[in-house]
Amino acid sequence: MLSALVLLATVAAVAINLVRSILFRLRKKRRRAFTAFRSASVLALIYMFVLIVVSMTSTQRVLSTGVPKCFGDWCVTVTQAVRDRSRGVVELSLRNQGNRAGLRPDRPAIWLSDPKGRRVAPAAETGPPLGGPLRPDQTVEKEYQFDIPKNMQFPMVSITEGGWLTRFLIGDENSFLHPQAVTPLE
Description:
Strand content: 25-35%
Helix content: 25-40%
Strand order of the largest sheet: 1-2-3-7-6
Number of helices: 2
Number of strands: 9
CATH class of the largest domain: Mainly Beta
Structural class: alpha+beta
Largest sheet: 5 strands, antiparallel
CATH topology of the largest domain: Immunoglobulin-like
Distance between the termini: 34 Å
Oligomer: single chain
Radius of gyration: 21 Å
């Protein structure tokens, strides 16, 4: 939540300085226009620098089977993650931890990856959609099947949630260069 407020404050400050720069330019006050533009640029660069430093210094969380990963009021638990030669089976338990209102996860995604950065999308799934609505205190079970390439070593399950804006949140695992939490296949 704090990172979202910092992003909003930075965007507002950059926008205000850009508008000031345009207004000064229209009034033929070039020096003040340049100063306002420079302020906007410095703010944006500082924010991006902090975003990248925090992302690059973060360590990857390796979650064991049965350990929940929470996104606000909803959590997902990898209850089983097994590999049988070229086939991977991942079972999930999705739970709405909130007790007041139903919710719908914001663009959830699941895939397998390896240490070389290769990704594999699910080949098949059973159960309700991953981004489907969850009533208060509801738990839903899902299963995904993956076709694992023969050259893929040490596949790991990655599950994320959030739209494009989370790419710019400091400390969010979806942000640029930030390692994502994974659960290894057994």
